[in-house]
């Protein structure tokens, strides 16, 4: 009896390291593998990740985010290196989209064709935005999920080619939601207010919320700011009110989603608008 028990114990001890070596530490991914899409993932703590050869920021807990631009190629290659040195490779198929052409007339000429004296201000504000988008806070506030900051008529969609006052301009990289001036605007997800500007040349009163790992949301053309820079906010918290400041023909919210310098589609992150 004793010999059988000892033999069983020995077999059990021999199996433990073998079983540990056989474990496969996989990653999880959820979200939109499409042009303009955002994906949220989790890997083993201590893992490192690259996407198309570029390093991806990862929190200590293993959370990370991936983004695919307006004109992303059909596939992206993700490589995960586990803490023990093993690697996993995953090829992600990216769904292509077709984009609309949107013509907007009636804008003040100066907002479409700025004067030379406006350029110093425009360049300074562009640099400010770039600095805010370059923040890499090692937090995963984006895990709260995303909601629509306001509901209303969608007056502009992500990716559409813009023709302003008859002049071709860059694609629209956000979602526009028309609503009456003064309508409440809420934070789309948990985060920290990285920018609360009282009046930019193009975007007027503007808020940018940092959701961690370089992921942020932008709220532009506001009539009033309801939060200050540096404030911690929760998903659904009031942050401002709809307006028509900056380059706008009517009261609406321009809502953007950014991952570093990459512009993504916030409507994909939040899903269908409630009630529509």
Structural topology:
Elements lengths: L1 H21 L5 E4 L6 E5 L5 E4 L2 E3 L6 E5 L7 E7 L5 E7 L7 E4 L4 H4 L3 H18 L19 E4 L4 E4 L2 E2 L6 E4 L5 E3 L4 E10 L3 E9 L2 E8 L1 E2 L6 E2 L4 E4 L10 E8 L2 E3 L1 H5 L6
Parallel strand pairs: 8-10
Antiparallel strand pairs: 1-2, 2-5, 3-4, 3-6, 6-7, 9-12, 10-11, 12-20, 13-19, 14-15, 14-18, 15-16, 16-20, 17-19, 20-21
In words, what does this structure look like?
- It is globular and about 60 Å long.
- The chain folds into 2 domains: 25-93, Immunoglobulin-like (Sandwich), CATH 2.60.40; 101-270, Glucose Permease (Domain IIA) (Distorted Sandwich).
- Strand 6 and strand 7 (87-93) form a beta hairpin.
- It contains 4 helices and 21 strands.
- Mean pLDDT is 86; it is low at 1-25.
- By secondary structure, the chain is α+β, with helices and mostly antiparallel strands.
- The strands form 5 sheets. Strands 9, 12, 14, 15, 16, 18, 20 and 21 form an 8-stranded antiparallel sheet that branches. It has a 4-stranded antiparallel sheet with strand order 4-3-6-7, with no helix packed on it.
- The longest helix is centred in the first third of the chain and has 21 residues, at 2-22.
